[in-house]
Amino acid sequence: MDPTPEYESVEAFVEFLMDDEVDTFTAVDLQALSASVQRSIKRLRVELEGWGLTLAPRPSERHVRGYTSNPHDRWYGPGSCPSHGGSGHEQISGFGGQE
Length: 99
Fold this sequence. Notes:
Elements: H1 10-19, E1 24-25, H2 27-37, H3 41-50, E2 54-55, H4 89-93
Parallel strand pairs: 1-2
């Protein structure tokens, strides 16, 4: 991986942010810096916060439900949670873990 200049070291990253007069860093920046300098994200975050920088909160994805929204999209569709296991009928009927 050929790192970009701002991710070569912690000092280079801090200098990059200070040049743009930014005092926050994102989780994506933190992951890229961690991969570049081969250090854990937790230790990098502590070091960056020692420089006076703060981690920007992650924006939450919102699904706005309107009057015409499907009230039954708990297990499927745009309002469902993709990390949820499902409605449970797979486990009840004995098909859990099968395609």
